Amino acid sequence: QVQLVESGGGLVQAGGSLRVSCKASGSIFSIEAMGWYRQAPGKERELVAAITSGGSTNYADSVKGRFTISRDSAKNTVYLQMNSLRPEDTAVYYCNAFVYSRPTTKKDYWGQGTQVTVSS
What we know:
Elements: E1 2-7, E2 10-13, E3 18-26, E4 30-39, E5 46-52, E6 57-59, E7 67-72, E8 77-82, E9 91-102, E10 105-110, E11 114-119
């Protein structure tokens, strides 16, 4: 079994910055990709940013130029640096990871979510 534990959410004023972190632990052979999703009240969960084991990144158009995803593979940890935050960035942010527990066994895991609130 694999656990994803997020940290770093909170309340910030518009224009401010926050960094959220997510550490994977448990039965890990390798991690193919890690990413961040968010879900605002009354809306569907959406991809914010993702990063592969090779370092390729993908961002939602709404966060390009403001958010940066990075990864420390040695620590099985992914980070999301969020700058120039806007009230519309308010949501619960969820960590996601595609984890190989064995060379041919891959599974999708989710964290419990961390609240990010941006006040205007």
